[in-house]
């Protein structure tokens, strides 16, 4: 395999650099909102899909690395990509183009791409290896969402489509409860009340969860010195002797790949000789190490000592996604007219929240990530709006035979008993 290729096994999902259906009701649209013109969709091969996802992964991770080089990080750009794919399906015109360029889709068939991603994942729920992806959308009741968008979420993404009224606190609780349930309670509070503005009309959520046992279990080995530059700190460590572990060495790094039971998922650890210098060329480092590991056969008895670790990371991704070229969707010029019967700028992405957690211990690894895309309305103008706020006459009548059954007027709300 060429070292500059981005098509490598799913280990990228867990690459760790060391040291570092409710029915949704919506108003019948006015004739002024026509269906968006069909977008020519080209098909991608599975290697092309993986290449594009991994390219997005390295691009987004590079931004995490640049801004958090002195902090522990766990992130799943894979999960972010899936959430953005649901957004992409609702975007139109230049908003769709920006998303497509950042994601490498370029008018590709996003539904087919997602289905191919699912087909290549070793999804499982056995006792030693669990991996699954879940998607859900919450849509404001009464807002004019397109039936074809909701159908696409169900059909393409296997997503739960739920509705919510006006209670934002209840909405936040429901989303958090859903995410907690899908992540085995690893992520309990993806959203805070402050994350979700009162003018929210939709939340798109994607989750990925993994739990796996090592092919050969580690044993505790006390504490080791963990060095960072010229200083060190003691950390609980574990060790294993195994012939299934791969080791690859480069000019200034050592990399290991550790397998789990009953799955093709593995953990890759890349330890540069000098982390601070290596991050400047992180992409070449990762691609070179993965290529060497892919061309290395296990079989040699390896004695591996490594720290146990537990990392939680949460981030508002707005600025990061803007740096990747996804800008318009966050502005009053957003075009999400494939999601709802709206005009450009009526709704936009308020924020994209991502949280991930990983626990690495003697028996194995547990990891989860969740991404929420919060969509809000600007000053949405319905095709026609009537506000009853002055005295009025009212009646109950049979609209077919025109017989008036009750009639009256309403003058003063303070007179109500």
Instruction: Describe the global form.
Output: elongated
* SS content category: alpha+beta
Count of DSSP helices? 9
Strand percentage lies at 25-35%
Give the SSE order as H and E letters.
Answer: EHHHHEEHEHEEEEEEHHEEHEEEE
Distance between the first and last residues' Cα:
80 Å
Low-confidence stretches: 1-28
Tell me the helix content: 25-40%
**Mean pLDDT, rounded to whole units?**
87
Descriptive overview:
This protein has 417 residues and is an alpha+beta fold. 26% of the residues lie in helices and 31% in strands. The strands form four sheets. Strands 2, 3, 4, 5, 12, 13 and 14 form a seven-stranded mixed β-sheet that branches.
List the keywords:
alpha+beta, 9 helices, four-stranded mixed β-sheet, disordered N terminus, 417 residues, 26% helix
Describe the structure in brief.
The chain is of the alpha+beta class and 417 residues long. The protein is built from nine helices and 16 strands.
Element layout with pairings:
Elements: E1 16-17, H1 46-67, H2 77-90, H3 93-103, H4 110-120, E2 124-125, E3 129-140, H5 147-157, E4 160-164, H6 168-182, E5 200-213, E6 219-228, E7 231-242, E8 246-249, E9 253-259, E10 266-272, H7 275-278, H8 282-294, E11 302-307, E12 309-316, H9 318-323, E13 347-360, E14 364-377, E15 392-397, E16 404-410
Parallel strand pairs: 1-10, 3-4
Antiparallel strand pairs: 2-3, 3-5, 5-14, 6-7, 7-11, 8-9, 9-10, 12-13, 13-14, 15-16
Helix pairs in contact: 2-3
